[in-house]
Amino acid sequence: MAGSGAVLGVDVGGTGIKARLTDADGQVLAEYRVPTPKDDPDAQRLAETVADLAVGAVPRDADSTVSLDAVGLVVPGVVDERAGTSVLSVNLGWRDVPVRTRVLAALLARGVDVPLAFGHDVRAGALAEVRSGGLDEGSAVFLPIGTGLASALVVDGTVVDGGGWAGEVGQVRLAHGPHAGARVEEIASAGAVARRTGVESAHAAMLLVQQGDATAARVWRECVEVLADVIGWTTAVAGCHTVVVGGGLARSGPLLLDPLRAAVADRLAGLRVPAVVPARHGDAAGAIGAGLLARDLLERGTRVAEGMPFVAEGTR
Question: Nearest-CA neighbor of 253 among 285, 223, 227, 279?
Answer without folding.
Answer: 279
